[in-house]
Amino acid sequence: MHIFATRKVLQAFKKAEKMAGGSIENIEILADSGSPEEEELFEWHINSVKINQEDLLVLTHDLSGLTLLFLNTDAEELLDFYEWFEEAVYDLLGKLGFTHKSIQQYLTHSKGSNLTVSKATDFKKIGRNSSAVNLIRQLDHYQENEYTIQSYWQYQISHLNRSLKQEHRPFKQFISEYEKIIGPVNYHVDLAEIEVRLKMGGLPDVIRIIQMPMQLTFEDLHRVIQKVFMWQDAHLHQFIMEDGSTIIGAQQKVNMERYQMGGEEEAYAASQLKLADVITPETNGVFTYVYDFGDDWVHSIRVRTFYSENRQVFPKLSLMSGDPVPENIGGPPGYAYFLEVINDPTHDEHSVIKEWANDYLSRLNLFNDVNHFNHDLKSMHI
Questions:
Q1: Pick from 78, 92, 220, 235: CA 20 to 30 A from residue 119's CA?
Q2: How close are the terminal C-alpha atoms of the chain, in Å?
Q3: Are residues 218 and 357 in the same domain?
Q4: What are the distances in angstroms from CA 356 to CA 193, 200, 338?
Q5: Helix (H, G, I), strand (E, B) or coil at 67
Q6: Which one, of 179, 2, 214, lies nearest residue 94 by Cα?
Q7: Inter-residue long-range contacts of 133-137, CB under 8 Å, 24+ positions, other chains counted
Q8: Residue 280, Cβ neighbours under 10 Å: how many?
Q9: Residue 264: CB atoms within 10 Å
């Protein structure tokens, strides 16, 4: 595995090498700017940046644009850089369902458990690294804490980083090249089939049955629910677990702490917690998702079953019952009134309500389909 480093990072590595009294464990700093690797699959670029007063190391995979993130970048911490790198690769590829064996094959395929480092000179590859940095700046609520940066956001940024305009998305590109050079990827994915039921008062509930990989986070589950209920993610949300704990969006948590909001109970950031961290066959099999604290859309969630697959698996909608509900309509009572008006052309407010709901009705006609939702869900995670 080879890393092309900017001058600043290369100097930090050399300083760490002096502190170690020789070489850094599993890392060799090369005198020239070349790479001993024969394949881009094993090459990365690294830069050090400051974002919101935090020092980060940003690594981008040369071929695909996959991105790894690290906090605390002084020379002393670089003594443990290989351990950091290995842990981040395991976390990122593990979210795709790679087995331990397949990840280890990638880490050791070319030069064993060693990294070589040399000076970065390819401006195109440096540009891809800069593109990842710009994505981090756009996601300003990444700064929840070190775990969030190194886990959830490196996954999201990897998905988005397509600065070289390659034909395939980053994860798909990486997997394709991996299988070309190393061989088939072995997968193992633990899943939960969950029923998400939007409680509608006197009206029939709106139900979605979803398969969710357990290595994904509650933030991913939030995004999946938003997609299959055709919500616009324009309001606050929270998960209320069976054990009483509360899980909210990372930005919500930052704002609560900044303005000293909230009660005695601690709220956890959704991007910090994988589903497998909280949901087990014994605990939290039933919980609640609330979206829009004004309209108060309450979704009852029940885990129907746990199972495993030895293949690549994405979130998937397997069954849907009932139409999505428009936002900003006043909750279940407001929706009941909306149906009364929209279904009665003689009602005094029919034309006004129909014009207000034009966008919703158009999306309902075009996109309210299992296949469409599943296409979007797959695109969100590959």
A1: 92
A2: 24
A3: yes
A4: 36, 21, 11
A5: strand
A6: 214
A7: 133/47, 133/49, 133/51, 133/58, 135/67, 135/160, 135/161, 136/49, 136/51, 136/56, 136/58, 136/69, 137/51
A8: 14
A9: 4
Q: Return the closest-CA partner of residue 160 out of 176, 140, 139, 142.
A: 139
Whether 131 contacts 58, CB under 8 Å: no
Quote the domain boundaries for residue 51: 2-181
Same domain, 258 and 353: yes
Q: Which residue has the tokens 């069976």?
A: 242
Q: Are residues 193 and 177 in the same domain?
A: no
Tokens 């670089």 map to which residue? 78
CATH number at residue 75: 3.30.420
Of the residues 162, 181, 200, which one is the last residue of a structural domain? 181
**Co-location of 90 and 223 in the same domain:** no
What's the mean pLDDT in 250-255? 67
Residue 340 phi, psi (nearest 5)? -60, -45
Q: What region, left, alpha or beta, does residue 233 occupy, with left being phi > 0 and alpha being psi -120 to 50 degrees?
A: left
Do 233 and 173 fall within a single domain? no
Clarify whether residues 256 and 124 are in a common domain. no
Strands 267-269, 246-248: parallel, antiparallel or unpaired by DSSP? parallel
Which amino acid is it at 38?
Answer: E
Contact predicate 313/97, CB 8 Å:
yes
Give the domain CATH number at 342: 3.10.290.30
Q: What does pTM read for this prediction?
A: 0.86
Residues 141, 264 share a domain = no
* Together in a domain, 212 and 173: no
Q: For the chain, how many structural domains are there in total? A: 2
Q: Where are the alpha helices (DSSP H) in the chain?
A: 7-19, 81-94, 100-108, 123-138, 146-148, 154-160, 170-181, 218-228, 250-258, 275-278, 331-342, 350-356, 358-367, 370-380
Q: Which residue has the higher pLDDT, 34 or 257?
A: 34
Strand-pair category, 43-51 with 2-5: parallel
Domain end point (choices 156, 181, 206)? 181
144 confidence band (pLDDT: 50, 70, 90): very low
CA gap 309, 231 in Å, rounded: 29
Question: For residue range 86-141, what is the model confidence (pLDDT) as tens digits?
Answer: 999 999 999 999 999 999 999 998 767 688 999 988 877 777 777 777 777 766 54
Q: What is the DSSP letter of 143?
A: G
